[in-house]
Amino acid sequence: MAAIARFHLLQPSPLLQPSAILSKFHRASPFFISSTNINRGCGRTLSTIPPFRCNSENGSSTESSRSIVNDLLDYLNESWTQFHATAEAKRQLLDAGFHLLNENEEWDLKPGGRYFFTRNMSSLVAFAIGEKYSIGNGFHVIAAHTDSPCLKLKPKSASSKSGYLLVNVQTYGGGLWHTWFDRDLSVAGRVIVRAEDGSFSHKLVKIKRPLLRVPTLAIHLNRTVNTDGFKPNLETQLIPLLATETDKTSSEPNEKSSASSKDPHHQLLMQILSDELGCEVKDIASMELNVCDTQPSCLGGANDEFIFSGRLDNLASSFCALRALVDACASPEDLADEHAIRMIALFDNEEVGSDSYQGASAPTMFEAMRRIISCLGQQSVGECGFARAIRHSFLVSADMAHGVHPSFVDKHDENHRPMLQKGLVIKHNANQRYATSGVTSFLFKEVAKIHNLPTQEFVVRNDMGCGSTIGPILASGVGIRTVDCGIAQLSMHRLAFEVHQSYRVSRSVKLRASKHS
Predict the structure, then answer these.
(1) What is the DSSP pairing of strand 139-145 with strand 341-347?
(2) Could you count the other beta carbons within 10 Å of the beta carbon of residue 17?
């Protein structure tokens, strides 16, 4: 990314002479990541057939790729919700020596320092300041999001019908809701707990065992399902089962488990949560719970070349951004010659439009940029300093991309069909559903070339609607140059078994780290 700043895009001549521009780039030192145990916490072992097949990679880089992939699996398995994803990112940053900031307090920042803060426990901004940074120099940013389509418990979730205890839910985002049927489901999220002294605290909770299930109707009672399609009513039929009513009535009555028709949630569910949290049911003051699949993320395919997991959109991108920042400034020497500020921003609520306190539409990132410039200026910095910094900045909006499906090839433009093995995907849309421009696409591809990393391009068909990302939101927020890119995957927005190429993760980390070097 430091190299990008040297393109001087405000001057037209460099774009006419790209060879002169590229001579200013210096090849980064080999990207190195220490190895870890293979498939730690996944319950599987790697195949004896090497899963990472790339002729340009030697043995050392292959081991590095395996390490990155297994760390991603750990991240996915920890991050059942946006809250858990942010908490895991926070843990990794603290372990890497980053300092936690509080938005409510004054910041004391210094060149060479590494810092981060969280908002709502579901979004995060982290940054590392170059030793040679001066006011007006730019920010090199990778932005992604922590949320995924899911089911969320309603404020009053308890209901019963035909002898079953049911849990009422809301749909969040644009999920493939039929994939939520007949899965081993549970709950996870954030709970506000009352302490003995009357104070309140946030706690994360995750019930790891299968707790809920949404059963399908037997084909004997729905003979036309295979011809007419499975089209469940999301209000009346997408309702997880918790237990049978007889389980409750047959147990010994006691003060803890006695249910009231006015209780917003089943007392059985509340007791399970309180046992996990180590508190009394009455001390649970509020909660935000997602319904989650309990099956762990793992490697798959004959050569273990795929990652089978839910929430790849967009935790894979969040992980790559996080890992790139941590590894690009792992030692003080990594920031010694840096003139810019390296930053990542992980937002919540992208799947529902980003219009929230913790979403990309909030001024979180740009307020942080202003505060950073003000702190480093050691005095009041005028609008000019921030404006110059934005003009010298570059943002990578990282979100997963639609890989071509072998059974539905016609769903892609014939000249823009991203493959799982062909490189990072640069997304284009003439109607600005993506923020990529000719200039930002050029810059991204040139940096990739320098590091021998392949890229490919995606354009949606004219007869199909186009999704969007946080890229246009952030690009238009203050006018920061932005490119939209992502890793190709299959089965996006499915509950489980979204698929993408495992070694491509290490490639994505390497390219994004090069943007910070």
Answers:
(1) parallel
(2) 10
At residue 463, the 3 state secondary structure works out as coil
**Burial (CB count <10 Å: 0-12, 13-18, 19+), residue 431:** exposed
What is the CB-side half-sphere exposure of residue 284 using CA atoms within 13 A? 27
pLDDT tens column, 287-327: 999 999 999 999 999 988 899 999 999 999 999 999 999 99
Of 239-253, 344-358, 449-463, minimum mean pLDDT range: 239-253
Please report which helix (H) or strand (E) contains residue 208, including its range. Answer: none
Rounded to whole angstroms, how far apart are CA atoms 431 and 480? 18
Give the number of other Cβ atoms within 10 Å of residue 482's Cβ: 26
Rg, the chain, Cα only: 24
Environment class of 310 (CB within 10 Å of its CB; exposed 0-12, middle 13-18, buried 19+): buried
Exposed/middle/buried for 136, CB within 10 Å: 0-12, 13-18, 19+?
A: middle
Distance CA 350, CA 452 (A): 31
Query: E-assigned strands of 81-120?
Result: 99-100, 114-119
> What single letter denotes the amino acid at residue 317?
S
Phi, psi of 178, deg, nearest 5: -65, -20
**The length of the chain, given as a count of residues:** 517
| 456 close to 419: Cβ distance less than 8 angstroms | yes
Element holding 476 (H helix, E strand)? helix 471-478
pLDDT tens-place string over residues 282-295: 999 999 999 999 99
Cα–Cα dist 100/113, whole Å: 11
Residue 444: name the closest of 397, 402, 390 by CA.
397
Residue 432 per-residue DSSP state = S
CB proximity list for 333: less than 8 A, separation 6 or greater = none
Q: Collapsing DSSP states into helix, strand and coil, what is residue 282?
A: helix
The pTM of the whole model exceeds 0.70: yes
329-347: buried (b, 16+ CB within 10 Å) or exposed (e) per residue? Answer: beeeebbeebebbbbbbbb
